[in-house]
Amino acid sequence: MQPSKLPILKFTPIFKSVLWGGKRIAQFKNMPPQGDHVGESWELSPMKGNESVVSEGPMKGRTLPELMISDGEEIMGKRLYANYGDKFPLLIKFIDSTDDLSIQVHPDDELAAKRHNSLGKTEMWFSVLPAEGAYLYAGFKKQITPEQFRAMVADNTIVDVLGKLYPKRGDMFFLPAGRVHSIGRGNFVLEIQEASDITYRIYDYDRRDAQGNPRQLHIEESVDSITYNDTEMTVDHFEPKAGEEIVMESCPFFTTTLMEIEGTTTLKLAERDSFSVVISTRGNAVLTAPDGSKTILNQGETVLVPASMESLDITASGDSCEIVTTYI
Asked: 37 with 17: CB under 8 angstroms?
C-alpha cells in the first residue's frame, strides 16, 4: 500500500436536542454547555443532512461524504471499498438519556434494502457513565408470537415481556437487527452502528408532543422485523488492560476493541485492511501518525484513521486513558 496521503481526520460533533436528553455529553467532552436536553452527539456520520465535517488540519471544512468520493479507497482500503464503494458504512454516537427512549426495533440489511433502499441497523452500546439505577431493555423474557406482540402493544403491556438490564460502566450490549430494545433513563453510552437511520418505533409510553399528538408508531413494519425467540440477551463486561486490545464485539458489520493506554502503545493497523475509528472514553491522548504528525484526542473525541495508515502511536497525556477502536 502507498504511504498515507490523508491525515488522521477529526470531525465536529453534531449535537441533537431531544426531550429525553441531558447535559452530560458536553460535560464529558469538557466543552461549554450545548443546551439542557442534548441526547445525542453524532461523532462520525455519513448520513444525509447530518454529514460530519472535518474540524481541523488540511482537510478542514470537508464533509465525510466528500472525502469518500475523492479518497474513498484510501479511507476504506481495497477490500471494503469493493464492498461499500463511496458510502461510509458506520455511524458513531454518544447518547445521554435522562428519560426512557421509545421501545424500538431495526430491520436487517435485506428488509431495509427492500423497503427503504438502505442498510439495516445492527448496533452495540458500550456503557460509559451510567447513573445509579440506570436500566435498559433488550430482547424478551420469553418467546412470544406476532399475535401476542400486537396484543401487548395494544394493551400497553409490551414492556412487561422485555428483558430489563442494569448496566455498569464497562458493560457492552450487542443489538443485532431484529432485537427489540430501548435505552432507559440514566444511561450514557457509546453507540456503534451500521450507517442507517431506519427505526421502527413500537411503543412510546403514550407520550404526546407539544401539540398533544402521539408520536408515530410503526407496529406493522415491526412485525416482520422482530426476532420473536430472542430470549438469550447477555451482558458482556470488559475491563481494559494496558497495551492490550480486547475485542468486545466482532460481527460482519464492525469489530470493536477496548484498551488502556499507559505511556505509548503502537497499533499495527495494516493487517486490519480497514479504516479505524478511534474514540477516547476516558482521559486524553496524543496520536502520532507514521509521518510524525500529531493529533490531540481529548476525552469524548472521535477520529477516523484511513486504511492507508499502517500504524498509529497512542500516548496517554496523563497516567492513562481508555481507548475504543472500531473497524470492519
From this structure: yes
Find the farthest-apart pair of alpha carbons in the chain and give their distance in angstroms, rounded. Answer: 62
Q: Position 100: which residue type?
A: D
Cα-based distances in Å from 294 to 3, 7, 243, 287, 305: 16, 9, 19, 5, 12
CB atoms within 10 A of CB 246: 13
Q: What is the pLDDT of residues 69-94, one digit of tens each?
A: 999 999 999 999 999 999 999 999 99
Which one is catalytic: 201, 207, 208, 272?
Answer: 201
pLDDT band per the 50, 70, 90 thresholds, residue 193: very high
First to last CA, the chain: 18
DSSP 84: H
pLDDT at 2: 57
- Do the beta carbons of residue 199 and residue 120 sit within 8 Å? no
pTM higher than the cut 0.90:
yes
Looking at residue 66, the DSSP 8-state letter turns out to be: H
Q: Tell me if residue 207 is catalytic.
A: no
